[in-house]
Structure formats: structure tokens, C-alpha cells
Amino acid sequence: MSVRPVLLAPPGPHGVAAYARAVAAEVRILDPTWDVATLDDLAQLPAGTPVHVHVTDRQWGASPEEATARFTALARRHPVTVTLHDVPQASDGERNRPRRRAFYATVARAAHGVAVNSAHERDLLVEEDVWRGPVEVVPLPVPALTEGTRPQPDGTVGVLGYFYPGKGHDEALAAAVEAGIGRMTILGRASDGHAVDLEAFVRRAADAGVAVEVTGWLDDDAMAERARAISVPVIAHRHVSASGSLASWIGWGRRPIAVRNRYVDEMAALRPGTLLPVEPSALAAAVRTAADDPDATWHGIHPVPVGPADVARAYLAWWAALPAPAASPPDERPGHPSPGDQGWVVGNRWDLVAGEEPEPPRVSVIVTHYAQPEELARTLAALARQDHPRDRLEIVVADDGSPVAPVVPDGVTLVRQADRGFRAAAARNLGVTASTGDVVCFLDADTTPEPGYVRALTRLPALVPEAVTVGRRRHADLAGLGPDVAVAEAGPDRELPEPAWLREEYARTDNLLRADDRSYRHVIGAVMACSRTFFDEIGGFDESFTSYGGEDWEWVNRAWQAGAVLAHVPDAVAWHDGPDWSGRDRDRVREGNDQTLRLAADIPVAGSAGRGLLPATPDLVVHLAGEHTDAATFLCVDSLLAAFPRAVIVLDTPPSARALAADPRVRSGAVPDARVVWQLDRPVLLDAAGPLASRLAALGQGDEGWLGVRAADGTAVGTAVARRARRRAERWGAEVGFTTGELVASGIHVVRDEPHLEAWVGGWGGLDRFT
Prior knowledge:
By secondary structure, the protein is of the alpha/beta class. The chain is built from 26 helices and 30 strands. Strands 13, 14, 15, 16, 17, 18, 19, 20 and 21 form a 9-stranded mixed β-sheet that branches. α23 (658-661) links the parallel β23 and β24 (666-668). α1 crosses α13 (308-321), α4 packs parallel to α5 and α5 (93-110) packs parallel to α18 (500-508). The radius of gyration is 30 Å and the shape is globular. Mean pLDDT is 86; it is low at 327-341.
């Protein structure tokens, strides 16, 4: 077992707290040696003790910002795994939605493992741009079925749970009115802050001819008794994360009418026969039918799939599959140099060199320019005011074919290229070629730095050669501002809005400390720096970019895949003259589409590449080493591609079986330079990807860059490595900079030489026919 967290069981009546206590109790039924703690107990736990936390922002603070601070303090002291509840969505409103997104993103990034209660919630995390990493889905359990005879129906339409807008009470009321039912029961009380809303609802219902009873809080037994007596149970949430009330209805033996949405459909498939899903337009008719036929609202299924014990076992399996969190950074292991000594850090952990100050590096600032003489003069004057040592600062203006050659002061180098359209990528490369510094710092001519810009932005590349830093680009109307006036002196009335999406992302990732494969989008070429050696290794900007935008993201993605350490430096401030791209007079949809189409071909990671199209370079390559029988190879390759349909399988010898040779995803020869390469030492049958898929998706994005994989019986079957880890190992001549994990995968089985293929393709064979 890799992770054995202490289970946090907070007090209070909130459903999330009750669920946390229930999960902890079920785990202890299976194994009484597991430890459970309250919030007060946390202070007594030794630092570094893993903790599992059920998280909703409302339980962690009066505001998302307070919740973020409290959770971050916990995560600094303990490795945490989390179950996220009440995940952000549109119903939060435009004020709270970005704030809640930022909290949940911080939690997910800080966590050692993330779980939710439905695939719907997992999809919401991606759709809300909260988290794109691995997520375990553990459904909410259905409580043990309530026994006893059915009570006499009470003649009411019932809605269960706290009252708040969007919970479905209005929809249930409208259905009751249309169905001619004059009574309604709200099983519960008003959610905090919504008592006035509940009073208004009761008055509105009375005006429509429906009498509403509000039960208030009831203990478990009383609530079950009242719920079983409801004539027509209704679930009509407009927006849902996961629904404990739905599971409770089912546990009481009821078959509620549930207005269809993605979550309801998921639960109906998970527990067939326990729900009556209806389209919103059919709710009233379904309520009338159920009132006339009360038996239709009882399911009679026993046991109901996925009960409390099943959920506890699912959690135990997930924790067992997670890699053990390092008690101390891997660089502290015997025989490994420390980051400060050698210039490398673990994963993206640039915080490991926080507080270290290098000797001021020799810096070359590359200023990209086209026909902006006033802006250029202002930026060059600002560079002359930098607090970086002047004798270690070189300025190179790279002109992209301006009609009139720019005028630069003595001591500033000017290089020019012919005007063949927008060629910022080529201009930047030209500027680097003419430079001599150890760190290159990129600026656009219309982006004027504050005095500490160069010093702040180049500190990390001077310490960690793989670091790529991005400054804070602020916006202002600088028209008419002469070169001798510092931007800060121009007055706040000139300031323009900063792009919220960047500000939120930097907050969510703790200034890119928790970067991932999609973080290239948050590094802007106009305010970027890196070491000269790393820039040369990556190969410079792609000069085939000849229209606005995208060349910096393509370069940063290449750098990240080569092991770059990304960091946002908020103290490195430069002021762009004019609004952000989104505020300019452009055909933003067309330009955005052009950029997306171009990058989709170059960046084959989830969220950047197409959803169905195969990329030019695969994301995952499985290399089956050695020679094996055609039958064993077929079974191995077929099961792998069923689990990873966009992968490429490389064999050491050309496939002889026609069924293998016909698939373009199966090939022989050189192994492509994929994001993850998994070398298999023997054929395996993969009947459930599960934790393996999650670990492969996350490989190289956190601290873990190498993964030893074992079959269910413990047999070692191969090693997966992330491109980031591989490139770092090549650069440093040793496997440093990433940790090595191990996974014993219950869904992997070693294949015998002659498996029974007819049973495999026919789908009627057990494992004993193949392994």
C-alpha cells in the first residue's frame, strides 16, 4: 500500500461532513487500524503525516479566499488527498464562480490525489478549467435499504434537502400545480442565508394554491419515516454537482422522479431501475402519473449497487494505487546533490531555491520592434534605469523590417530583417544570435519595464538553467508619455484592466509552481526570460509562425516537454502600451481559431489537441520489447489500444499477423518521442486501465517522472518514463530532477504464449484462458 492517510472527519450537520464521517466509519469496519482525526487533532499530528480531506469551500472559510488560506496551510504541513464536493459551475454566479474556481484549483494542485463523486463532476473540473489532471471517481453510496412496510402515501410532492435557489423546488411546485396536487413537503430547512428565499417560496406556492410544509431539520430516523410517506418524490435540480438526496431517496426504497441531466443519467446507468428519469417538459405528467400509481415510486431492488462498504473498498484501492508522498524532497536522498549545488530542482519545484540569490548574471535583453519609435524610445529609456548592474546588461533591438530603421542609443545593438510580414519569431531568434549574455530576457518594444524588472525576472534562470520565467504584464494608455517619465509616475488614471484569465491562473497555480502540460498558455513571450544554453538547446522560436500569436506558446510547450521549470515572477512588472489582446479591435474569433488550429497540430496534450483526431506525435507510446508469439502480441496490443485508443504501439519486429499490420497505430522501428513512453518487457492483458491511466496522464507533470509497473501478481512488466524526465536525464547525465514511483496494477495480467484468442475476441473467456 502506497498511501495510508489519516481520515479527517469534521463535526457538524453539513452533508459533506456527515459523508466524511460515514466513509471513515466504513473504512474502519473493514480495517479497524485506520486512524480518524478531527480538525482539532490535526495540530497533534506530526508534520508529513498524510491526511484525506473531504473539501467544499464553504466548510473551510467564510469566503473562498479564507478557505484557500486555511487549506494551503494544511497542505504545507501534510500531504493531502482530497474528495472535492460542490464543484464550481455556472449557477455560482459571475461574482463567486471565479473565486470558487480559484479555491478548487488551489486544492487540486496542492493535493497528492484528487477524487470526486461522479464522472459529471470530473468533467465539470475540466469544463470550468479547474483541474485537468488525474481524478478518481468514487460514487456516493446508497445507504442500507430501510426495512419495514410501506406507509400510507401522504398526498404531497416532496423535495429533499436544504432549500436554496436552483435546488428544484420551483420546478416541483410548477409540476404540482399543473398536476393538480395541492400539497408539497420540503424535507429539511433553508440553507444558510436563504431563509428569506424560503419564506418567499412558501408565499408564492400559496398564491398558486399549493400548501407547503417545511419539516426543518430531522434526525435520520425521523427523516426516513417522513420521506417514505411522501407520495411523489421529485429531484429537479437545475444545477447539480453530486446529489446525496438522490442516494438517500434510493436508500429509503423510493424511486424518485428525476429531471434528466448528465448526473441523473449517470446515476440511472449506475443503478438501473432506481430512478424515473424524465425530460423537464414531462415532469408534470410524470408527477400526475406517480400520484395515481404510488407503486411506481418504489424500486424494490436489494441490494442496491454501490453501498457504503463498496465505497470504502473503492477508497482503499485508490489510496493503495497512489504513489507514496515523499517525506522529504528526493534531492535529499543519500548520493544525490542538492538543487542549489547542481542547478536542478525536483519537478517544477522552483520554491526549493527560494531565498537564494545568485551573482548577477550577464543578461541580454532582446527587444522586438516594428514601426513603434516612440514606444521603443520609452522602453529603451526604462532599460537604462534598471537596477541590474549596467556592466552585466546588454540591449539588442531586433527590428522586424520597419519601413524606417529605428534609432537606438550608443551601446544598444540593432539587428534588422527584411519585411516579409509578421515575423516576431524570426526577429527574436535574430536578436538572440547577436547577443552574448548568459540569460536572455525578451521584451516587446511597446512593453516598458519597471526598474527591478530585469533583476527579478533573471534571478531564477541564473540559479536553475532549465527555468523559464514570465513577468507580470500590466496595461496602460501610455500615448504621449515621453521616454524620460517612468511609467509609475504617469498616474493610475492611465491604467487599463489586466486579463482576468491570467491573473486567476497565476493565483490558482501559486505563480505556476504547480504547472502542468497546459501551462504553456500562461507564459507570454513579451515578458519572458531563460538561460541562453537552454534556449539554444530548445532550438529557438519556430520561424514558420508568420501571423500574430502562438509562437511563444509553441516554444514554451517545447521547453516544458524538455523539462523546463516554469515560474511566474509577479515582481517583474512591465507595462504594455494599450489593452490586452482581448480588448483590441481585432477579429478575435478568426485569429483565435487560426492559433488553435496551428497549435493543435504541434501540442498533442489533452485540452490543446483535437478530441478525436490523432496527432502527428502521439501522447503515449507503448514499446513491446522482444519477440513474442503472434497470439500473445495480438492480445496485448488489442487490449492496450482498447484502453488507450490514441496510443501508438511499437514492436521490435514488423507485425506478421494481418490484423496487427492493418492498424496504423501498430508499427515497428524507432520509438517516437512521445510525452510518455512505456516500455513493456513482456505481453500483458490490460482489462482495466484505472489507476494506470491516471498515473500515466500525470507522469512528468508533478514530481514523478519514472514509473515502474507491475502486474496484479507482482511481476515487473516494464517502466514508463515522461519525456520531461528523459530529457532532464540526458541533460544532467543522471536520473535526477524527478522521482521514481511504482504501481502494482490489478488490471494488468501477464499473457501466456498461446492465449485463447477466440475467447478473447468473442468476449466469453475468463482470465484463465489468456494468462
